[in-house]
Write a structure and sequence with these properties.
Mean pLDDT: 81
Number of domains: 1
Low-confidence stretches: none
Strand content: under 5%
Shape: rod-shaped
Number of helices: 2
Structural class: mainly alpha
Length: 87
């Protein structure tokens, strides 16, 4: 499973575990951290990561397609320059 898919499918569980873990730490209010803020903002952070991963994957796929198209054009050009092959 890809990380982006996992984040998308498991975001509720990730938030729940993160909030539970944060609640088990020393009082976060002493450090200026509010559990409700974590609960409200972590889904947005996970979504931003998901979007970033998806964009990166699309860009990678586009680069791969461009490279394949470039190699294919070069192959056709070499074939055209050599002329028809004789069997």
């Amino acid at each position: 499973m890809r990380l982006a898919t996992f984040l998308r499918q498991s975001s509720d569980e990730i938030v729940a575990h993160s909030v539970a873990f944060a609640g088990s730490l020393a009082p976060l209010s002493n450090q200026g951290i509010d559990i409700a803020v974590l609960r409200n903002h972590l889904p947005l952070v996970l979504e931003a990561i998901w979007i970033s991963l998806r964009r990166e994957r699309k860009a990678s796929r586009n680069l791969k397609d461009m490279a394949m198209n470039s190699r294919e054009r070069a192959r056709h050009k070499r074939m055209a320059e050599c002329g028809p092959t004789q069997d």
